[in-house]
Design a protein that fits this description.
The complex is a heterodimer of chains A (113) and B (114). Chain A has 113 residues and is mainly β. Chain A has no helices and 11 strands. Chain A is globular and about 35 Å long. Chain B is mostly beta strands and 114 residues long. Classes of the chains: A mainly beta (113), B mainly beta (114).
């Protein structure tokens, strides 16, 4: 099956710990994205990558870091510097063309206490 | 990317057509209109997009007004599974060849009534 996988579905961490969320795609897409969603809100862009070994900050990158060492993988690290890390995190990918749709993973719900 | 305005919620009877409006009065000539939906606690799902002509696929139809300042997403025969938040997004090509992120507002919560 082709698609995007995110794991785990639910993640719990203590405050002050870094945590890495995984995102893998087998769609051969060049571009990948991380979004954050808070209750009752739309999605906000954290980071995106248009090609391997390159990534750009989105609207709310502070407290997050990413890497893109492989085309298939775009992990997101939520650092202890992120003031409000509890949220629903969504990964997406798209072909690197002008106006292609984005394909989303099932999301990871992170709770930090 | 241009701003969009959608009603916060709508109801529709099962089996009827659901018509979801979106205003995007500041849209520019090279910006497309995209529609996504998000079922509770899942990732968003692409539905359809268009530039200026009406579009139809197996999920929905998209009607864009001639001045392109508004559009309507039509689900022809709504089912209970269509209950979701529907997002209208206006998106340009972007400096990165169009691979920039999407800007999601709060969308319209469509509730299909049995």
């Amino acid at each position: 099956d082709g698609g995007i996988t995110q794991s785990p579905k639910y993640l719990f961490r203590k405050e002050g710990q870094n945590v890495t969320l995984s995102c893998e795609q087998n769609l051969n897409h060049d571009a990948m994205y991380w979004y954050r969603q808070d209750p009752g809100q739309g999605l906000r862009l954290i980071y995106y990558s248009q090609i391997v070994n390159d990534f750009q900050k989105g609207d709310i990158a502070e407290g997050y870091s990413v890497s893109r060492e492989k085309k298939e993988s775009f992990p997101l690290t939520v650092t202890s510097a992120q003031k409000n890390p509890t949220a629903f995190y969504l990964c997406a990918s798209s072909p690197r063309t002008g106006n292609s749709e984005q394909y989303f993973g099932p999301g990871t719900r992170l709770t930090v206490t | 990317d241009a701003k969009t305005t959608q009603p916060p919620s709508m109801d529709c009877a099962e089996g009827r057509a659901a018509n979801l409006p979106c205003n995007h009065s500041t849209i520019s000539g090279n910006e497309y209109v995209y529609w996504y939906r998000q079922i509770h606690s899942q990732g968003p799902q692409y539905i359809i997009h268009g530039l200026k002509n009406n579009e139809t696929n197996e999920m929905a139809s998209l009607i864009i007004t001639e001045d392109r300042k508004s559009s309507t997403l039509i689900l022809p025969h709504a089912s209970l599974r269509d209950t979701a938040v529907y997002y209208c997004i206006v998106r340009g090509r972007g400096s990165g060849g169009g691979a920039d992120g999407l800007t999601f507002g709060k969308g319209t919560h469509l509730i299909i009534q049995p």
